Amino acid sequence: MEQTEIIEPIQETMEEMYVNMGPQHPSTHGVLRLMLKLDGEVVTEITPYIGYLHRCHEKIGENRIYTQVIPYTDRLDYLASMYNNFGYVLTVERLMGLQVPERAEYMRVILAEMQRIASHLIWMGTFGLDLGNFTIFMYCFREREKILDLFESVSGQRLNYSFYRIGGMPLDLPDSFLTDCKAFLEWFKPRLPEYDAVMTDNIIFQKRVQGIGKLDQKTAIDYAISGPMLRGSGIKWDLRRNDPYSIYDRFEFEIPVGSTGDVWDRYMVRRLEMAESVKIVEQALRDLPPGEIMGKVPKKLKPLAGDIYSRVESPRGELGFYIASDGSEKPYRYKVRSPAFVNLSVLPVIGAGHLVADMVAILGSIDIVLGEVDR
Amino acid sequence: MTPEEIIQTIMSQFGEAVKASEVKGVEARMDVDRGKNYEILLALKGMGFDYLNCISSVDRIASGDLEAVYNLSSLNESAKAMVRVRVPREDPVIRSVVPIWSAANWHEREAFDLMGIRFEGHPDLRRILTSEDWVGHPLRKDYQDERLVPYEPA
Amino acid sequence: MEKSMERFYAAFAALGVPSIVPQLILMLVVASLVILFISVSVMFMIWWERKISAHIQVRYGPMRVGGWHGWAQSIADGIKLLIKEDVIPAGADKLVFALAPMVVFAAALAAYVIIPFGPNLIVRDLNIGVLFYISISSLTVVGIIMAGWSSNNKYSVLGALRSAAQAVSYEVPLVVSILGVIMTVGSLSMIQIVEAQQRIWFVIPQFVGFLIYLTAALAECNRLPFDIPEAESELVAGFHVEYSGMRFAIFFLAEYANMFTVAAIATTLFLGGWHGPLLPPWLWFLIKTYFIIFVMMWLRWTLARLRVDQLMNLGWKVLLPLAFLNMGITGLVLVLLG
């Protein structure tokens, strides 16, 4: 048994003040605790404390058979559930060498990219809310409601879908999905310029986010940052293009990249990514073939002994799963490499030296979901 | 560099420390001895593996070991590397790789918190996911707690 | 109006009562009328704000309380605030804590002395009308600092000091922007300023002054984009974080009363006061004032919040030089035109 660690009481001097943000706080996007050391209005040191939402996800995974883990993966990054399912299912399929039929692959991509749009919408809405712009929050959630309606027609669920299966998909798309989805995309495309009018082109917003929270390329690679944070710093790295999985190599889409790595660049990367996701969904809907949705999968899933690390590009970054199997029905070790966990570790570096009001903007631009950080 | 070349270079440099190796697709896998763990990872970084994807900890209770698995990749090449290190349960100490990649900081804290592997040279080794006064390492296979209820499928 | 006042005084003199008694009674009646007007106006503004924000955000807002579009929502909210428990934090300075909302509200109320609702509808047409308003409105800062300090809370103090800094910084461009109008009219009296706008409203020659005034007024009222002192999503809710129930309601009332005052001054100084065809003058006055309030609310629900240092920059480095420039050019034009 380990000895418990003693926590020293903090000695404050006259000039510095310790301020505690959270765990309950409107702007920390969940139960995150930040201890800020302030010198006047300037933050000199940030210490994040996480673990308030730790639900022993990995230990549970060791006690369930492979298919039973899928609903648990939904709850990791609960704002992008389709992607968690996708990443896990892909990892197990690679471990077992299973083939997925064409129609299932296309379905996966359509749902995953729609999920990316929904996740970025929530991010944009809450980011604007943190900065005082209440209206964009309502607009983004209005769009997201339509996406959730589509997901409900497909899987019966609005938030935690558990819709992917090892080897394919459980149910086929409903007949109305094609027309509904196309109608949604046509309705969504003119919304993006609307958001620009309300937020992106507004000089107050631009002054709030430009030039703060700079993440240079060397630090980004050193801290293993991924996703829009990495692309905001100017590194053109997207797993869908650089380490393709599923059928992403068949689609044409741009990878938006920032230049200076400040909050504004990350904002623009995510804003442009939404338009790219729309393109991918359109191409996938056009090419959706008929056929089977579930491949040849044994009744009892028993991978051979061995391990694998496999990753996908979730809306937050590189979502990786490391599964070590011992030949039985349950994973021997199941580890989740969550992008928000790794991206959050760079906050003390990019947040120091800014004003308190900027802290909120920088934290918002990292785009964390505590379910994923704490598992 | 191809995975085979990577393994060749490491084996020629470190010889005995590399206990086993294989190539799976574009991934070069190596089981190394903990004595030379740091040097091998440093050499891999020198070969272009500048991105540390993940450090996982595995409880190999059957052989009485704890295992740390390092997953590396590169942003410029397609090669990947996986390095596995085993340490005995009585003395689970590994040299920390935080000086090589800063990303290792939180990963090693998590491995310490949940599995109990001590990382020598880590700047701030304290618990990250459980509370500061937690006793024990929950992810070990022999972790006991009266609140744990065995899972019985219905 | 004059004759009825004389008969009122004469009636009391006939009873042998000193003339101070009818004066006091008159003052009380007028003050009650003003407070009544403020209460009704504020209730309307709160309901209106919720409706405007709802429609900007593609939703409905209050729809049920009282039937037609939830018109009684403010009344319900007011009753709710009245019946809440009165909590005073431990360690707070009780007297100052209780006085702070009164000071803020008194300052907001006192400004109504010089608001001209119509040609004869003004409490007292002081010949230093504008100066009176500027001086009284500075008292709100005192109340805010009292509230922040007495709450015995780190965040209250931070919020109160930020608010005080903001209010003081934006007073200066506010005053200088009005100077252009004052110089044109040659008097500080509110009635005379409105009378001088019979041919042309001052918003046209003094357009820059009007814009600066509007911006500074938003900052004075702690409204978005200048609502750092009350920002809910930053550290905490600012100087009134420890207030609940009726005390909080008084702060809220004072803020909306302030908004009305500021809009009324804008109407008087720039938009021609009560002048307008067809409708009765007091109706024109109210229409113009509520139009300015509508613009203020519209801005709140569209824009993001300015950071503290950006706010200070804007006030001192942009608005103030522009206001001085405006004053200088107005003076030059007046001299040249004789």
Characteristic terms for this protein:
heterotrimer; A: 375 residues; mainly alpha; Cytochrome-c3 Hydrogenase, chain B; three-stranded antiparallel beta sheet; 16 helices; 6 strands; B: 154 residues; alpha/beta; Beta Polymerase, domain 2; five-stranded mixed beta sheet; two-stranded parallel ribbon; 7 strands; 22% helix
Written account of the structure:
The complex is a heterotrimer of chains A (375), B (154) and C (338). Chain A is mainly alpha-helical and 375 residues long. Chain A is built from 16 helices and six strands. The model of chain A has no long low-confidence stretch (mean pLDDT 88). With 154 residues, chain B is α/β, with parallel strands linked by helices. Chain B has a domain of 89 residues: Beta Polymerase, domain 2, CATH 3.30.460.80. Chain B has three helices and seven strands, in the order αββαββββαβ. With 338 residues, chain C is mainly alpha-helical. In chain C, helix 9 packs antiparallel against helix 10. Classes of the chains: A mainly alpha (375), B alpha/beta (154), C mainly alpha (338). Chains in contact: A-B, A-C.
Question: Count the strands of chain B?
Answer: 7
Low-confidence stretches of chain A: none
Helix and strand sequence of chain B: HEEHEEEEHE
- Helical/strand content category of chain A: mainly alpha
The portion of residues assigned to helices of chain B is 10-25%
Question: Roughly how much helix do the residues of chain A carry, as a percent range?
Answer: 40-55%
Strand order of the largest sheet of chain A: 1-2-3
Q: Give the C-alpha Rg of chain B.
A: 17 Å
Most extensive interface: A-B, 38 and 37 residues
The 3D shape of chain A can be described as globular
Identify the CATH homologous superfamily of chain A.
Cytochrome-c3 Hydrogenase, chain B
| Count of DSSP-assigned helices of chain B | 3
- Provide the gyration radius of chain A in Å: 21 Å
Shape of chain B: globular
**What name is given to the CATH topology of the domain at 3-91 in chain B?**
Beta Polymerase, domain 2
Parts with pLDDT < 50 across at least 5 consecutive residues of chain B: none
Main pleated-sheet profile of chain A: 3 strands, antiparallel
In the CATH classification, which architecture of chain A applies?
Answer: Orthogonal Bundle
